[in-house]
């Protein structure tokens, strides 16, 4: 049975995140400390320095030879379930569409695992559970965000953006045998170029490579290198939340997509996603705390990266921004509720 001490530990882990969020919001909306141009510089600092190093720090200390492959399998099964449901909806429903299926997939599956998940899960289930969250984050960055980027590029190509204001990489590389659309390999080249420009992808891949090498041959990271990474990575959580507060303050409306879409987004994020994860977890035979961690990490707030992609590709960015903002605000009571309910699961 969950006690007040357990709730207090979760609150202690969450409050500092909210403090950083409020400071970022207030610095722009109330105190006018930063101009919009300066806010952009802060966001770039977070994107290109603190978050990649924060991601690398966690990924590099994962032991790939001791990863919980049932846990990863449950995550994969849950996403396959969601893809199947969305594909059926897009195909068979008059209200279904390819574009909304992409957005719905983001809302159901992509979580803010490292920034929010690590402190929360550690407070709930201890350091051992943090490894599961990091594993989930690594798989999300390497596989699922890459696939999201791929389908977004396919969508933009299908709409004819190579011929209007798309990337110059696509110009002059057209397959005339397929209605003047870019050839498949040209499209793949564009996707990989964009992925290569994302430092968070580098951080995750390099961290995973180092994890393989260090655990296989028992190498230790040089103290000078470790210290250089730590001094920046320790700022990752705080600066990411501060940046999120700045983003909130720059919006004209808190609910920029309307109340009805905001509610749908919250249902997909906090109910549909965890429900699919519960089905996937039971299907592969997860039990005990691993099952609980799997479901709770699926109920974490919306991934900020999913909003960045939505904004870049012009696909329901207002829905994703609302999901990020309200997901952060609603996550504490939602996660505590899941934590309490899951205490009754054997």
Automatic annotation (TrEMBL):
One Pfam match: Mem_trans
Primary location group: membrane
InterPro entries assigned: Auxin_eff_plant, Auxin_Efflux_Carrier, Mem_transp_PIN-like
Keywords: Auxin signaling pathway, Membrane, Transmembrane, Transmembrane helix, Transport
Spans through the membrane: 7-28, 69-90, 102-121, 133-152, 191-213, 229-250, 262-284, 322-341
GO molecular function, one term: auxin efflux transmembrane transporter activity
Annotated Gene Ontology cellular component terms: endoplasmic reticulum; plasma membrane
Compartment(s): Membrane
Keyword Nucleotide-binding: no
Membrane topology designation: Multi-pass membrane protein
GO biological process: auxin polar transport; auxin-activated signaling pathway
Functional description taken from the UniProt entry: May act as a component of the auxin efflux carrier.
PANTHER family cross-referenced by the UniProt entry: AUXIN EFFLUX CARRIER COMPONENT 1B-RELATED, AUXIN EFFLUX CARRIER COMPONENT 5
Protein family per UniProt: Belongs to the auxin efflux carrier (TC 2.A.69.1) family.
Annotated protein name in UniProt: Auxin efflux carrier component
Annotated organism of origin: Populus tomentosa (Chinese white poplar)
């Amino acid at each position: 049975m969950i006690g007040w001490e357990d709730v207090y530990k979760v609150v202690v882990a969450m409050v500092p995140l909210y403090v950083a969020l409020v400071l970022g919001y207030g610095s722009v909306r109330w105190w006018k400390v930063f101009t919009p141009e300066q806010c952009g510089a802060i966001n770039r600092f977070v994107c290109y320095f603190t978050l990649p190093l924060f991601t690398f720090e966690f990924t590099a200390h994962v032991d790939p030879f001791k990863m919980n492959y049932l846990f990863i399998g449950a995550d994969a099964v849950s996403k396959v379930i969601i893809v199947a449901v969305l594909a059926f909806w897009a195909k068979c429903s008059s209200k279904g569409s390819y574009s909304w299926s992409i957005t719905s997939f983001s809302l159901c599956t992509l979580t803010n695992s490292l920034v929010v998940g690590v402190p929360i899960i550690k407070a709930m289930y201890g350091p051992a559970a943090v490894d599961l969250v990091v594993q989930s984050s690594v798989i999300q960055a390497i596989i699922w965000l890459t696939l999201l980027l791929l389908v977004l590029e396919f969508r933009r190509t299908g709409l004819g953006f190579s011929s209007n204001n798309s990337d110059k990489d696509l110009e002059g590389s057209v397959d005339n045998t397929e209605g003047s659309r870019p050839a498949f390999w040209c499209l793949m080249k564009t996707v990989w170029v964009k992925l290569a420009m994302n430092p968070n992808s580098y951080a995750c891949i390099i961290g995973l490579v180092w994890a393989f090498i260090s655990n296989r041959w028992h190498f230790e990271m040089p103290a000078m290198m470790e210290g250089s990474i730590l001094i920046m990575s320790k700022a990752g959580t705080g600066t990411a939340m501060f940046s999120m507060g700045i983003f909130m303050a720059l919006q004209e409306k808190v609910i920029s997509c309307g109340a009805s879409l905001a509610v749908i987004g919250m249902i997909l994020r906090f109910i549909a996603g965890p429900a699919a994860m519960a089905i996937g977890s039971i299907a592969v035979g997860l039990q005990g705390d691993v099952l609980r961690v799997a479901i709770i990490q699926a109920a974490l707030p919306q991934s900020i990266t999913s909003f960045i992609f939505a904004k870049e590709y012009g696909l329901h960015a207002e829905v994703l921004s609302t999901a990020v903002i309200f997901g952060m605000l609603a996550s504490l009571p939602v996660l505590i509720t899941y934590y309490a309910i899951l205490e009754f699961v054997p």
